Amino acid sequence: MGDSELDAIRQRRMQELMAQRGGQKGGAGGAQSLEQQQAQEEQQREAAERRQMMLARVLSSQARERLARIALVKPDKAKGVEDVILRGAQYGQITEKVSEERLIQLLEQINEQTQKSTKVVITRRRNVFDDDS
């Protein structure tokens, strides 16, 4: 998406919110909480848009596609990878676009760090009447 498209979407959404607020001015406290909820949802949408725009700047198109596919299956893992990439970009550790190969390396590193090892221990209780002698 281009910047002009995002600006147009934001403008349309703001107009919709303004129109809704205009129709609710006669309401009491319930309308206020509804407005607060809508404002909060709008902030969350804007934050998500900013996040996607930053990822679009940092990731190559193939890497974005792979990350989108991962998000369909494991949204938590995809969000974690996005966080790592964005943090690296903010601190200047990532200076060029992340390729699909680099994304795969990041995924493997994260998998190694978060891998859980399962250990099963079976302890058998001795019967009181067993005689070892």
From TrEMBL:
<comment type="similarity">
    <text>Belongs to the PDCD5 family.</text>
</comment>
<dbReference type="GO" id="GO:0005829">
    <property type="term" value="C:cytosol"/>
</dbReference>
<dbReference type="Pfam" id="PF01984">
    <property type="entry name" value="dsDNA_bind"/>
</dbReference>
<dbReference type="InterPro" id="IPR036883">
    <property type="entry name" value="PDCD5-like_sf"/>
</dbReference>
<dbReference type="GO" id="GO:0003684">
    <property type="term" value="F:damaged DNA binding"/>
</dbReference>
<feature type="compositionally biased region" description="Low complexity">
    <location>
        <begin position="31"/>
        <end position="41"/>
    </location>
</feature>
<dbReference type="InterPro" id="IPR002836">
    <property type="entry name" value="PDCD5-like"/>
</dbReference>
<protein>
    <submittedName>
        <fullName>Uncharacterized protein</fullName>
    </submittedName>
</protein>
<dbReference type="GO" id="GO:0012501">
    <property type="term" value="P:programmed cell death"/>
</dbReference>
<dbReference type="GO" id="GO:0005634">
    <property type="term" value="C:nucleus"/>
</dbReference>
<feature type="region of interest" description="Disordered">
    <location>
        <begin position="1"/>
        <end position="49"/>
    </location>
</feature>
<dbReference type="GO" id="GO:0006281">
    <property type="term" value="P:DNA repair"/>
</dbReference>
